[in-house]
Design a protein that fits this description.
The chain is of the alpha/beta class and 416 residues long. The chain has two domains: 201 residues, Rossmann fold (3-Layer(aba) Sandwich); 113 residues, Four Helix Bundle (Hemerythrin (Met), subunit A) (Up-down Bundle). The chain has 16 helices and nine strands. Strands 4-3-5-2-6-1-7-8-9 form a nine-stranded mixed beta sheet, with helices on both faces.
Length: 416
């Protein structure tokens, strides 16, 4: 069964749990972001400097000449090819208004002030991954801002270039490593370099850079690739392979499938964690339980309680200290170092695990908290994969939640 076939039940279950359950805050926010990600196609963003062959590559990946020539009709900042029930084009103008046209964008009259063009096609492949072109402006001062916008929405980046110059390398060096791990350098117009006899030399020169900065390098003759897909009644398999388009398309499809599989696995892990919490009474189940008569809590066996209470108090104090310092850092710092904050949270949970090992193994409260710490470690791993400010804030919230549970256990012992 493919990931697409296997995903809907997980998405439906996650949606139900988030709507019906009293899910702890960091779990809920993570689940909501994950659910939003699973609901939309994988975002494949094509970018590069002006004149680098982005539009031609986008047309080739779409399998037809959808947009027409580079900027001839309107030069939109963003061009998107995505799934729709019928072929239609939406033009968003700079004043925010939208104009619709039936058919392909290449055949429409573009508004002079178009900012974004969205092409919808009834292609099932586009339900799994959208193709988006976001070009970098010519002025160097604006390029980094645009690149940050690209990174914020892309799952996979295809950087188009003829030679990936030193200036391009400096720009790309600022991209976070998790995005680089799923991004490709595409040498467009490779046929020109073949004719000049320099393609092999260009690839050899870029190999050390690609090994550090990209998942891989793909030389592509985009016009040949598009011709292979559109000439005649079927695909010209030999020309499609020779153009480099086939290898690139296969890599993109594989990376998109891997990424979606990872999302589904994370959603399943989150559901398992929430189920475990529900089983231990930490979160409400999906359906409300029948009301029960209140019962007087049983008094715990206090044998060995000083050592048990000491471990719980030490753990709660450590969490209060670490989380307090992190919140102060958030208040004082204008530029949040989310990676450093996540690392501190991981270190705090590791230190907590060491403290809780001192508690007797037959202490039920300590056993519950050890399970919570295991859950917390797994959630922090997910936050580290996501990175970013929201993930860091959720990690701190998770520590505060763990502290609240530990303080509650300690207070319960004192009252008993």
């Amino acid at each position: 069964m493919s990931i697409a076939e296997n995903m809907n039940p997980v998405v439906a279950r996650l949606e139900t749990v988030l709507e019906a359950s009293d899910v702890p805050a960091p779990y809920h926010r993570w689940g909501a972001r994950l659910l939003s990600h699973l609901r939309k196609p994988v975002q494949v963003v094509v970018t590069g400097l002006p004149g680098s062959g982005k539009t031609a590559l986008l047309n080739m990946l779409a399998g037809q000449n959808v947009l027409g020539g580079q900027g001839a009709q309107g030069g939109a900042e963003v061009s998107e090819i995505t799934h729709g029930s019928d072929a239609r084009t939406l033009f968003e103008r700079r004043d925010g208004s939208v104009r619709q046209s039936v058919g392909l964008a290449r055949d429409a009259v573009w508004p002079q002030d178009v900012r974004r063009v969205r092409q919808e096609l009834p292609d099932p492949e586009l339900a799994r991954r959208s193709l988006i072109e976001i070009g970098l402006p010519a002025h160097p001062d604006a390029q980094m801002t645009r690149l940050q916008e690209i990174v914020a929405q892309a799952d996979i980046i295809l950087w188009c270039s003829e030679s990936f110059t030193a200036a391009e390398q400096r720009l790309w060096s600022a991209v976070p490593d998790p995005i680089k791990d799923h991004s490709l350098l595409v040498l467009t117009m490779a046929d020109r370099q073949v004719m000049r006899g320099i393609l092999g030399q260009t690839i050899a020169a870029l190999e050390p850079v690609v090994a550090e900065e990209f998942l891989g390098l793909y030389p592509v003759a985009t016009m040949q690739g598009l011709s292979a897909l559109t000439a005649g009644d079927g695909v010209d398999g030999d020309l499609w392979a020779a153009s480099g388009g086939k290898a690139l398309a296969q890599c993109i499809a594989h990376q998109a499938e891997l990424g979606r599989s990872s999302d589904v696995d994370q959603a399943q892990l989150l559901l398992d964690r929430l189920s475990a919490h529900s089983g231990r009474g930490r979160a409400a189940p999906v359906t409300a339980p029948a009301p029960t008569e209140p019962q007087e809590p049983a008094r715990p066996d206090t044998t060995g309680s000083p050592a048990q209470g000491e471990a719980l108090m030490d753990a709660a104090t450590l969490l209060q200290d670490r989380a307090g310092r992190m919140l102060e850092l958030l208040d004082e710092s204008e530029d949040l170092d989310s990676d450093a904050l996540l690392d501190q949270c991981v270190d705090a949970v590791a230190a907590l695990a060491g403290i809780m090992e001192r508690a007797p193994q037959d202490d039920s409260d300590a056993a519950d908290l050890r399970l919570d710490l295991q859950d917390g470690e797994e959630m922090l791993l997910l936050f580290q994969l996501e990175r970013g400010e929201e993930a860091a804030l959720d990690a701190v919230t998770l520590l505060l939640q763990l502290r609240k549970e530990m303080v509650g256990k300690t207070a319960g012992r004192a009252q008993s």
